Amino acid sequence: MLEDLKKEVYEANMALPANNLVTLTWGNVSQVDREKGVFVIKPSGVDYNDLKPEDMVVVSLDGHVVEGNLNPSTDTPTHAFLYRHWTDLGGIVHTHSKWAVAFAQAGIPVPAAGTTHADTFYGDVPVARRLTKNEVDSEYELNTGKSIVRAFESEDIDPMAVPGVLTNDHGPFTWGKDAMDAVHNAIVLDVVAEIDYHTMSLNPSQDIHVPQYLLDRHYYRKHGVNAYYGQNTH
Amino acid sequence: MLEDLKKEVYEANMALPANNLVTLTWGNVSQVDREKGVFVIKPSGVDYNDLKPEDMVVVSLDGHVVEGNLNPSTDTPTHAFLYRHWTDLGGIVHTHSKWAVAFAQAGIPVPAAGTTHADTFYGDVPVARRLTKNEVDSEYELNTGKSIVRAFESEDIDPMAVPGVLTNDHGPFTWGKDAMDAVHNAIVLDVVAEIDYHTMSLNPSQDIHVPQYLLDRHYYRKHGVNAYYGQNTH
Amino acid sequence: MLEDLKKEVYEANMALPANNLVTLTWGNVSQVDREKGVFVIKPSGVDYNDLKPEDMVVVSLDGHVVEGNLNPSTDTPTHAFLYRHWTDLGGIVHTHSKWAVAFAQAGIPVPAAGTTHADTFYGDVPVARRLTKNEVDSEYELNTGKSIVRAFESEDIDPMAVPGVLTNDHGPFTWGKDAMDAVHNAIVLDVVAEIDYHTMSLNPSQDIHVPQYLLDRHYYRKHGVNAYYGQNTH
Amino acid sequence: MLEDLKKEVYEANMALPANNLVTLTWGNVSQVDREKGVFVIKPSGVDYNDLKPEDMVVVSLDGHVVEGNLNPSTDTPTHAFLYRHWTDLGGIVHTHSKWAVAFAQAGIPVPAAGTTHADTFYGDVPVARRLTKNEVDSEYELNTGKSIVRAFESEDIDPMAVPGVLTNDHGPFTWGKDAMDAVHNAIVLDVVAEIDYHTMSLNPSQDIHVPQYLLDRHYYRKHGVNAYYGQNTH
Which ipTM value was assigned to this complex? Predict the structure, then answer.
């Protein structure tokens, strides 16, 4: 079942090593089929060189395997919770990309420090707070998903306008309208983390945020009804 | 029309990913035909892998599309203003190359800290100041061009001797006698930004500028009537 | 003799340049055959491009060449001592990978600062202390091995749970159940050193260690009887 | 004339981009034929992709072109002076490799901070002091050579034991028994500069030098009559 979706998810997973976002077998991408109420995700711990479209695992939105001979990614309960809670999400990516992880380990949001950031993320990429011992000892991966949602709800951030997060001590999750869009956002997040790291070092005593009006201009140049970037504009 | 120019501009655009100056679809290169009063520029938001010479868009110097089925780069009004104002410019490049953007976001000029810089840029690469809300809300891309020119005129810098700038909060623009020359300058700008970042970190308490006489020697070793670098010297 | 083992060791050695862990001829990998009481190791100072499986050198556990026309790696006595002392080791890797060496030269352990680290190393990767003049002037490579064992015994660290070390002034050694597993650990060590360096710089005043319960969760998600990462779980 | 030498020098020049030591046309390698009293060097400002063995230029030891249709590297007088002054030199390399240039611009020697350095350079790689206006305005490239020799003589450093230098405000020169050996030393210099930069940042308040006895051990493990590294040992 779902041959086309498996192929799309396979290709989005293969885009992670192609864009230098993963080491070894790390990282995973999924995409949801809202009508069928399932999502397709990378199997756990498989080498990218050995991965095939038919290895992708079909999982129900409550996190049970529906089809597939391989174990799904251990992060599957995180994906499932995000799909259940945020119904606009079409695809999700998790990586250990180096610059985003550096910020995640430091517990510091990736600041909206320039137009490179503003073109994709409408504001800082927030940090989901450190999980408690209880949250880690019980349903760890589910609680990771819950902590992500809390980070957005507590600060009233729209997850479709800021399509990514850093989980403290861990690394980034990004999402989008489909798997490849989520990969796009994972690429941008790591690049802006890298650039921002150096900007912060060059200018340690100053707030490096762009003004709100420039954030607005660049974000809405690419998103929404008045967008005029690219070829599908109004 | 302008098949040869389109091909040159296409090749200069493709030189950006080949030299690791771009992520995704970011960046754009143009070249002007002064006789015909038009310039050719990359279309907006097209994947470099899909780009073809015939996709290049022909634009008049006042910024209107003369030929082409695709939307030109959103940065087209910036290019047009620079061509109108500085009549020696033959080609223009805009990128989000990582090291130059780090300086642009920090609002710090790239200092002339060594002969690597002096061979191409006769002095610091300046920062065009942050745009105001009015400048961003109205004709943003045009005002970006105006801010660049102001940065040079206010400090009496010759744009042909310092063929590049950092736009604050945004990133670098470089230019040259043609598109490929502007790409050359974009490559050098990112390399010297990278090296200078590390020099500044190694020696934070000291002015790292080269003495003026060494800047003179290296710049004029490569430029002007007494140049003796390369094969086309006098 | 030992054609299969030589091939495995050859392939593990070739994985070092493939994963950007070596410059020039630096680095070496070995794997032991416990039944025969020998290990196979890279010859000294041979270019990776010229290396062939049959060039691998067979060495007894007391460090004497048993078979091979080439000199074994100068680090052979270090490998031999580790195999003799820690009988669970199947493979050993030594590199001068850049980030791990930066920490080794600084004499600073690579901190368990995130789940990326916790998935592979159950705690900080320790530093074996600087050797004395006597230790360097006499059997230097043997004494390197002894200093590694002392670093683990003095702090009661299980070498199979923390499969790597930094030798002060020098660089990393990693190990594992076989040569390729040791290469895996060498890759992870350099990546976490790189990420931790940036985390420490972003957050210089704060302890960046993960809490013990998260270290437990991630390490035991991948190791031991309750592991549930990957395809060979219980 | 000198077909074999031209081929060797060509290959050594091509090893610079292959090892990521150059940007654009920067960098040059030469090798001397002491019997004939000439050296062969890269032409000035030629793209590495266009370079051919027959483009190499033959120059006399007093710096005059003996054969070749192209202008030799502008750094030719520096090479010539070093060959005249240090008669053990067989090959010379000049690059603008990024990490070595960062130290050169900062005016800071690359410290002997680990065994990676000690294997190739028997002590810190020194900085030749900034040239005066007179030195730059007159025979700049010759005076660069003189400043290099002064840096070694004033501190009584053996150029064959420390086969490289940083020229202040400029970049590295390395040398060796032939062109490819000099390239080897250029590779090592940039790698140790990169690693040392990070070590200095991790440990800013501490002297990061290796003890003299470890410098001795590693250097003499590879050099001199008691060397035991590699396959050509005694």
Answer: 0.96
